[in-house]
Amino acid sequence: MEAACEKAGRDPASVRLVAVSKTFGPDAVAAVAAAGIDVFGENRVQEAAQKIPLAPGRLHWHLVGHLQSNKAKLAVRLFDTIHSIDSLKLLKLVDAQCAEAGRRMTVFLEVNVSGEPSKFGLAPEQAPPVLEAIASCHHAEVQGLMTVPPFTPDPADAAPHFRRLRELRDHWQDAFQLALPELSMGMSHDLDVAIAEGATWVRVGSALFGERE
Ligand SMILES: *Cc1c(COP(=O)(O)O)cnc(C)c1O
Predict the structure, then answer these.
(1) Predicted pLDDT of residue 60
(2) Structure pTM?
(3) Which domains does the chain have, with CATH numbers?
């Protein structure tokens, strides 16, 4: 991350790391936490619900995977940040659950910039009603955008997708008078490409924990 920041002429403090611990147990989390990392990511609410109570207590947990409506209540109790808000309904539901729990939560809108049918995320043309609803959400605070580009063997091929997310962010900030400072993009094999395109959060699993089964 530091090398990528240096190459891109960015301050290393402007990019933060989510250690994606999915499929790995609390012992692996504790080992990575002992190395100084304190933000962890999970993609399944149920798995996180089992792991978090067994992990060191001072850690922050981010949900990076798709959230089903019926898990929103539990997600609001487990996570500090949700990267994967992909519908108006889900934004409103998370906002309502946060209000009920008496807390605020940082959330990002997941955007399917490539249009791959197998991917979660809002199509850019579906985003306006969600962007308009942000002002009336007082507990779920939308701070930015997230994307998962199509996998390609050459990480450089992800660059246009990351750039598109940044351009959408710039456009939506102006058009909807919003502050969307965060861009959650980049994983183990393309984090340097994402940092060159403006990532503020990278979500790294296998490069930290090893290959998943
Ligand atoms: C698994 C996962 C990651 C991490 O992927 P790696 O390739 O292991 O770094 C990042 N983001 C999301 C949404 C994931 O599900």
Answers:
(1) 98
(2) 0.98
(3) 2-209 (3.20.20.10)
